[in-house]
Amino acid sequence: MSARVSGRDDKAVTPDDSNVGDVAAGPGSSVTRGVWARVMKGAVEDAVRAYEAMGAGQRERVLEEALVVPADTRTRLVEVLRQARDFAGAARLLESDGDDRGAAPLYEQAGAPLLAAEAWLRVGEQARAAAAFERAGSLEQALSLYQALGARESLAHLLGRMHRPMEAAQVFRVLGNAHAELEMLRAVPADDAQRPEAVLRMCELLDAEGATWRALVLLADGIKHASGAGLLLLQAEQARLLQQLGLASAPEGSVAAEKAPPVVDGYGYLKAIPIFDGLSLEDMRDLYRLARPVLVPAGTTVLEKGAKGMGLVVLLEGMVSVSTGPGPDARQLNMLGPGAFLGEISLILDSPVTAHVRAHTVVRALRVTRTDFQYFLETHEAAALRIYRLFTQSLAERVKALSG
C-alpha cells in the first residue's frame, strides 16, 4: 500500500514490508505509513517534515504505534521527534524504554515540569527533582526534597513562597542572610501570635546595622497590635532603645517617628527598574528578598570593563563614576548616584561588561546575582514572561536609538 504526505511530498512511498511487519496492525494505516517508511529508511529530515505535517491526532497515533516497533526503530523516531520539536513525545518514548534520565530534560523543554520532576526522582536526581516540583507548583513535594537534601537556601526561599515566614526567617538566620531574614519577618501578619517575636528580632537586626530609629518606629507600630506578654516585651525593648538614643524621657508610646532619618532600603528603586515593571507585589517581594546588601569602599571597582557580568547593582547611597576603562587615560562617561542601576543586561545575557564602574565615594547598594536571578525566573513563570518581554522591548529600543 502506498501513501502520500499532504503538502510536503507528492511522491508515493512504499515501505519495505519486511521492515514494517512488526507494526502492521498500526503503521499500516495511510495516515502514518509515510512517516514510518522514512524513519525505517533512516531519512530523518524527510521523516521530520512528514511528522510536522500531521495533525495532533495523527501524531498521537504514531506515538502509540511506536510502542510496538523494534527498539532501534523507536530510537530513530525519538531523534525525529526531537528535531520536530515534539519534546514531550520524545520524552514519552524514552520513558517507556526506561530511559528516565533522557526523558527528564525533554519534559522540561516541553514545559512539563511535573513529569520532569517524577523522571528525575526515578533516577535519584533529587535536587533536580525538587527544582522541577517547585516550578510545577508542587511545593510540598519540593519542600520535602529540599529538607532531605539539606538545601537550606532553596528551602528558605520556598518557605517564603508558601507563606511560612517565621520558618523561612529561621533558616535565613542560620544562613547568615540578615536581609532575607528581615524581609521574611516583615511578612509575619500583625494578628499572628508570633508577631511580637518577629518584631523583636527585626529590631535586633535593624539596631545591629545602625538603623535604631527604624527599629523604634517598628516597635511603636507593634505595640499598637500587641497584648499580654508580647506587649510587655515590646515595651521593654522600646525603653532600651530610647535610652540608647538618649531619649529615655520621651513620652510613653512615642518614639518621635517624625524625627527618624529616612533610610532607603532599595525596594522602591528595584521596583522602578523598567524590566521589572508590571511584576506583582508578591513577585517583587520575592525578587527583593534575593538581593544582597553590599558596602563598597571608595575607590573600589564595582564593575570591571570586559569582565563577565555578575548581575544587577542598584545604588542606595553614594556615587560611582562610569568610564571607558580602568587606566589613567580613560574618559569619564557619567557619575551615578542613588536610584541608578547597573548590569541589568547581564541578568539575562551572558555578555561582558561594556564600561568600567568605580566607587567615587563609599557606596551602599543592592546586588542581584545572575545565579539568583535565574532561580527567580525558573520559579516565577509569569514574572519571567513579563521580564523577557520588557527586556526585548528595551533592547530593541536601544538598537533603534544607536542605528538612528
Automatic annotation (TrEMBL):
Biased composition (Basic and acidic residues): 1-14
Gene3D superfamilies linked: Jelly Rolls
SMART domains: cNMP
GO-annotated molecular function: DNA-binding transcription factor activity
Domain Cyclic nucleotide-binding as annotated: residue spans: 275-394
Any Pfam family hit: cNMP_binding
SUPFAM superfamilies: cAMP-binding domain-like
Superkingdom of the organism of origin: Bacteria
Any GO CC annotation of this UniProt entry: cytosol
Protein's recorded name: Cyclic nucleotide-binding domain-containing protein
Taxonomic placement: Bacteria, Pseudomonadati, Myxococcota, Myxococcia, Myxococcales
